[in-house]
Amino acid sequence: MASSPRTVVHRDLASMPHVVIIGGGFAGIGTAKGLSDQDVRVTIIDQHNFHTFQPLLYQVATAGLEPADVAYPIRTIFGAARNVRFRHGRVRAIDHPRGLVILDDGAEITFDHLVVATGAIAAFFAVPGAEQFALPLYTLADARRLRNRLLSTLERADVAADRERVGVTFVVVGGGPTGVETSGALSELIKIVIRRDGLRLDTAKVRIVLVDVAPRLLTQFPDAASDYARKHLESMGVEVDVGRSVVEIDATSIRFSDGERLEVEAVIWAAGVSAGDALPTGLGATPGAAGRAQVSPDLRLAGSTNMWAVGDAAAIPQSDGSFAPMLAPVAIQSGRHCATQILHVVHGEATTPFRYHNKGIMATIGRNAAVAKLPYGRVITGRLGWLAWLGLHLWYLIGFRNKLRVLINWTWRYFDWKSGPRLIVADAETDES
């Protein structure tokens, strides 16, 4: 049951309790929005001055969208909020006894309440060479680096066509939504550069291999949805190889548990995430599933009265004994709930437990193809699922400018396909290493 609107009595900002939020992702922004124009001071700290819409990063990586289409300045989001400010910086440590957040530049920021919304980073599962040579897809920099690698590889293959038709192999590790979406988009990218850009690639020698240790794709979905995704990807030319594990990656190849070594131009890592390495030092949190910080039902860190964790950073208990999944809807909902609980504490009221409202999960496979698992188990596929996926992502995308740009880009590509920022804008030291 939604709580009634709280009457806000604006006081001098300096006298208000100070809430520091570490992280400008879905959870951090959701928390700050819930505290906007309330009787608290809010400081958002992030090493980037923009919010990234992570579900569309794969389209940046495969030249479907521009980086600016999926990023929005945090200061602009809260430009009209008198009590919210942004601090650009990286958190070095937390000094809980003194109520301090310590930044890399030596600055110290005091807090009355601390919200950890640091998200997660790629988990490489101790696979030798994976962290060094594989290309993850969890930040805007990751997407830009991957796009440059993919386009540079295709350009080099075109140049080599003057002498011979060379083979090009890309391997995507991870059969979840990110891996499925990236594989489908990469297949479409290759078709576009051949048909529209005139690259001389021999499609028979271009391989996209999607590999996962699980026995099927999209394990969060019912079997029928997994089968649909696999069949559609294979119809697009993607080789789906499930039930197979990766044991080593180097600069030019990938090796599997059965001993096969495959020469590759790029390994795209979408095998999973971990929150542990993203958490700030000194937090003193009890580690939970996937390295996430254990929290009580109201989202406070276990054993703490004024430190909270939300989104992917938190192992949020559910009524059935499991933990809330690491999904954007969980991050958004937990951020909003955390804001409400902080206001309860500030006003001397009791907190309430977080309840995740499952609105379903989705994954797009390609043009006119997607799978969507709705609440209560119903699954829709094909064009209807694809349209639902488009509408949902546009709805949650922050910023009217971004919504409009993405809508125009998608519409243009649907009817024409020539558009797309297929530009190599690379720093040789940072993007092509």
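(the above was protein one; protein two follows)
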Amino acid sequence: MNALEDLGYEALDNFPLSLIDALLTGKPLARPLVLGIDVRNRDFNVDGLLSVLKHLEDDTRYDPQLLFLDCAEDRLVARFSETRRRHPLAPEDAPVVGIRREMQLLPPVRERADFVIDTTQMTPHDLRDELLRWFGSEGNAIMGVTLHSFSFKRGLPSGLDMVFDCRFLRNPHWDPLLREKDGRDDQVADFVRLDERFAPFEGHVLGLMETLLPAFQEEGKTHLSVGFGCTGGKHRSVMMLETVYRALAEKGWQVSKRHRELERMIEEPLSKRGPSS
């Protein structure tokens, strides 16, 4: 909220949903408005938030955009530990209890978001820089792109605009030295690149992105979600996502990423992990 306020927004944190209508029927604001809304709000509920957003979308006077800040569970637990704060959904329990309740509650909000920023590996300074890129003087003219890696066995992530199937590429799972690594590891990436089909596949995907992203942006789309799937969501899809992420970032696109199965593996005991791709 402080970062957006520094960018010229009128920033109101922890704002009750029930007061939004009254706020907007008052004197028009000279600056763009940002409202911080989360589970701390006394009247917060997912249906209510999405209803308010739909109401604003239907009113031609407003151009609402929803920003969702995401984070892996283990990092959230660490942040609560560092700040010694209680989670509002579990004030009498360990923070992880509230975090898991919140993660069960918010998927419909994340799916509806126009912008998703994964803050897991970010410092506050990193997040401020990311917000500057997205919401600075020219930020709203740039379409946000979120890349997802996932396992087909667990189904497609919700809200994807397009999906690429990476299961035809050679599988690092069958190499004992690579099985426990993931697609962010250089050895895994080199293994996948040795597949003669990888280079053409990479070229076609990047070429398609180069064609489609400007076209979607010209049509007024504010956010695009692209999925990369493989058998277990650990090696090939992750490696391909990282490849596309770097290429799009280098071309100036506002791109974020989420590795769904890697996030799940952080939470699950080793004994419960299934085969990797």
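Reviewer note on protein two: Residues 269-277 have pLDDT under 50 and may be disordered.
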